[in-house]
Amino acid sequence: MERSKSQINIFNLISAILVWILASVWFCIIFFLATETKFDSYVRSQNVIEIFKEVAGIELTQLIVRKFAHFFEYSFLASAIYLGLSFTNGISSKHAYRYDQRKSIKHVNELCIIYSFWLSTFISIIDEYIQLFVDGRYASIVDILIDSGSIVISLLLVRILFLLKLMILHKNEDEYDNYRY
Q1: Are 65 and 48 in contact (CB under 8 A)?
Q2: Which runs of consecutive H residues, i.e. helices, occur in 61-140?
Q3: Looking at the domain assignment, is residue 173 inside a domain?
Q4: Which of 55, 125, 141, 164 is the most buried (most CB within 10 A)?
Q5: 116 is a domain residue
Q6: 62-89 helix and 38-56 helix, angle to the nearest 10 degrees
Q7: What's the pTM value of the predicted model, to 2 decimals?
Q8: In the prediction, which pLDDT does 4 show?
Q9: Is residue 4 situated within a structural domain?
Q10: 67 Cβ partners below 8 Å, 6+ apart?
Q11: Per-residue pLDDT tens for 151-162?
C-alpha cells in the first residue's frame, strides 16, 4: 500500500460512525439519569430491585443497585469510547497514528486506552457536577471513584483481549505497526 495515497477503510469508517453514535447516545442517557430528581431516581432503582427479586429471587438494596449502575454505565462508556477511537484511527492509513514517526507512546492501543480513560473520567466528573443542581441530589467523590474503577477494569480487559488477539495472530508488540484491525 502506498502511503502517499489515502485509502479509506470502509469497515472502520462505518464502525467508527456507529460506535460514536452509540457512545453519544449512552453519554446522553448518563446525563439524563443525572438530571432525575431524588424521587425519580429512587423509583427507578426500586423498579430494578423488584425486577431482580421477581426474575432471579435476589434481594438487592438501593445502594447496591445505584453503585452497580455507576459501574456498568462507565464500563460500557469507556469501552465504547475505546472502540470509537480505535475504529477512527483505522479509517485512513495515511493519517493513522500507527504510521506517525513522531509518536511518543509505543502503540496506538495504549493511546486509545489512555484517551478513553481520561474522557470517561471527565464525563464522570461532569455527571456528578450536574447532580449538584438537581433537586435532592448531590455529588459524590465515591461515585467518581467507582466510575473510575469500572473504567480501569474495562480498559484492562480491553488490553488483555488485545494482547490475546495478537497472540492468536502470532504477532508480538514489536510487530504491532504491521498489525491491521
Answers
A1: yes
A2: 62-89, 108-131
A3: yes
A4: 125
A5: yes
A6: 90
A7: 0.84
A8: 47
A9: no
A10: 143, 146
A11: 999 999 999 998
- Cell 492501543, located at residue: 109
Report the number of distinct structural domains present in the chain: 1
Say how far apart CA 153 and CA 151 lie, in whole Å.
6
User: Is the pLDDT reported for residue 109 higher than 90?
Assistant: no
* Residue 148 located in a structural domain: yes
DSSP label at residue 99: G
Adjacent-strand bridge partners of 8: 92
What CA–CA distance (Å, rounded) separates 77 from 116?
Answer: 9
Report the C-alpha gap between 151 and 136 in whole angstroms: 27
Q: Give the model's pLDDT for residue 94.
A: 62
d(CA 85, CA 30): 20
Please answer whether residues 96 and 90 qualify as being in contact, where contact means their C-beta atoms are separated by less than 8 angstroms. yes
Which residues span the domain enclosing 103? 10-178
The pLDDT-based confidence of 181 (bands split at 50, 70, 90) is very low
Q: How far apart are CA 8 and CA 14, in angstroms?
A: 11
The one-letter amino acid code at 4 reads S
3-state class (DSSP) for residue 47: helix
CA 26 to CA 22: how far, in whole Å? 6
Provide mean pLDDT across the span 69-91.
93
